[in-house]
Amino acid sequence: MPQVIVKNLFSKSIHCESNTEKLIDVLLTQTDWMHACGMKGKCTTCMAKVIEGETSLSELTEAEKRFVKLGRLKTHHRLACQVTVTDDVIIETPEQYKLPHLNYSE
Ligand code: FES
């Protein structure tokens, strides 16, 4: 099954239960991750920066395309509540969405 590594959370490694899971569901099994709109694709707080494995993620959703058009979702960034993980991927929490109660690494 796919593996998600969160580089700036001390390379925390999280195994997916299947290759059809949303990235946010995988993350929330092992860590806290911001998701202000309740995973409806209406904010960008669940954003993840993709370090390696962009092809291991599903295509951009309509919600993501809307944020790309608005300039709020840049290259190599995805919305964790929108994207499905199909293979191994390495991500980071973007600086602006780091949670104050978690310790982050470089
Ligand atoms: S939680 Fe709001 S877009 Fe993902």
Description:
The protein is of the alpha+beta class and 106 residues long. It has one domain: Beta-grasp domain (Ubiquitin-like (UB roll), Roll). It has helices at residues 23-28, 62-69; strands at 3-6, 12-15, 21-22, 47-52, 77-79, 84-85, 89-92. The termini are far apart. The site of FE2/S2 (inorganic) cluster has 12 residues, from loops. FE2/S2 (inorganic) cluster binds at residues 35-37, 39-43, 45-46, 79, 81.
The helicity comes to 10-25%
CATH class: Alpha Beta
Please tell me the CATH architecture by its name.
Answer: Roll
Largest sheet: 5 strands, mixed
Total domain count? 1
Mean pLDDT: 97
Poorly predicted segments:
none
Termini gap: 27 Å
Content of β-strand: 15-25%
Kindly report the name of the CATH homologous superfamily. Beta-grasp domain
Order of helices and strands: EEEHEHEEE
* Helix segment tally: 2
Ions, cofactors and other bound molecules: FE2/S2 (inorganic) cluster
Query: How many β-strands, per DSSP?
Result: 7
Instruction: Write out the strand line-up for the largest beta sheet, numbering strands in chain order.
Output: 2-1-7-4-5
